[in-house]
Design brief:
Layout (H helix, E strand, L loop, with lengths): L4 H10 L3 H18 L2 H7 L4 H19 L6 H15 L17 H16 L2 H15 L13
Length: about 150
């Protein structure tokens, strides 16, 4: 088991700590989008992909830090900090709005690699497999855009 989030979600569910659950799943969703291959990012992210990706990750990362970072192992914290720092340090060429060409640039490759590592560290495959069950129990629907309930 990675850092124990796959066990911790059940404790949060038992105590009906939906804010923590929502924060963890929002972070996972943001990491999934960041981890997509460049061609997938270009094809699957509507509007301004740069803004969508960076804003979604930034909001999810902030909630993670506020609510659940104390439960994370150091390697996850380092991976997330690395993603945040890399996004903050994107050059003007790497942070252009409304162009998918940015995803071919080096820092976006680094973000993808770190996002994959972070997904592994939070035990994303197991968390994803439990998502529907938790949604049903909590009746809080974690569909795209439901982060309004948390943020």
């Amino acid at each position: 088991m990675g850092n124990g989030f796959s066990n911790l979600i059940w404790e949060w569910d038992y105590h009906t700590d939906t804010r923590e659950l929502l924060a963890l799943y929002a972070l996972g969703d943001a990491l999934v989008s960041l981890s997509l291959q460049a061609d997938q990012q270009a094809a699957e992210i509507p509007d301004c992909a740069y803004c969508d990706l960076t804003l979604d990750f930034g909001a999810a990362y902030q909630k993670f830090l506020e609510l659940i970072a104390g439960h994370a192992r150091p390697e996850l914290l380092l991976a997330l900090r690395g993603i945040s720092d890399t996004l903050d340090e994107l050059t003007p060429d790497e942070s252009q709005c409304f162009t998918s060409e940015i995803f071919q640039l080096e820092n976006w490759r680094i973000v993808r690699e770190r996002s994959v590592a972070a997904l592994e560290a939070i035990e994303w495959p197991e968390l994803s497999s439990n998502r529907h069950f938790l949604e049903t129990l909590q009746k809080i629907g974690w569909s795209e855009g439901s982060d309004k309930d948390v943020f």
